[in-house]
Amino acid sequence: MKKTLLAVIMTVVCVVIIFAFVRNEFVDRFNPFLETEHSYAKVEKGTQYYEKVTAYDKSGKKLSYKLSFNGFDPEQEYVDIIHKGKYVSEIHYIKSLPKDIN
């Protein structure tokens, strides 16, 4: 009984440590400590796979990490990104970036 309880406690501690310190799209997707947020970015035209994109939050502050995601319109260059950490759940193409974003 004590060994089982210790194993459960150690598993929970390991999961919490992973959620707190590991940042990638797989962990961020299930991380209950992260909130879904909107960010904006300028992406390269002529491609549908955007890799290491610098994104900005609504106030114009640059995110501390870069995002990678697939798109569907190679002719557009501005996107509204809905994401949870590095996990991108949706993108929407927009005509221009908000005023606060360079």
How would you describe the overall organization of this protein?
By secondary structure, the chain is α+β, with helices and mostly antiparallel strands. The protein has one domain (2-93): OB fold (Dihydrolipoamide Acetyltransferase, E2P). The radius of gyration is 18 Å and the shape is elongated. The chain contains 2 helices and 5 strands. The strands form 2 sheets. A 3-stranded antiparallel sheet has the order 1-4-5. A two-stranded antiparallel sheet has the order 2-3.
Which regions have little confidence, pLDDT < 50, spanning 5+ residues? none
- SSE-based structural type: alpha+beta
For the residues shown, what is the average pLDDT?
A: 90
Helix and strand run: HHEEEEE
What overall geometry do the principal axes of the alpha carbons give? elongated
